[in-house]
Amino acid sequence: MDFVSIRVITGDVARLVEFYEKATGVPASWSTEDFAEIRTPSGTLAIGSTRTVPLFAPGSARPAANHSVIMEFLVDDVDRVHENLTGFVTDFVNEPTTMPWGNRSLLFRDPDGNLVNFFTPVTPAAIEKFARSADTGDIG
Questions:
Q1: Domain count across the chain
Q2: Residues of the chain with pLDDT under 50
Q3: According to the model, what pLDDT value does residue 140 have?
Q4: Are 68 and 15 in contact (CB under 8 A)?
């Protein structure tokens, strides 16, 4: 089994896609006006309109209602990324902070209130973990 993507349902696909394109520097691939993807080598952030929800099951997903998932992106230099996001991101949850497990993390909210973590491994163990993950294609 391969983990392929996480899909965020939103009431404003264009706004959320623009946010993630700017935050990640990755251009979106659009399938329709109701669906776009931000594709990275290790996974995809899919962004779908509320109009797509009935195709799966009516009422099964609600936009801007996430209180349990954090989307995480590995970046080269979280402090530099923080500088680049300042003035663009309006809701930082924390400044870059080194976590006990060895990642330096920046937590913020996207325009729908979803939590996003940009992080950089900084301890030898964390650096080694992500170097191995890059070799095997298994980020995590």
A1: 2
A2: 136-140
A3: 42
A4: no
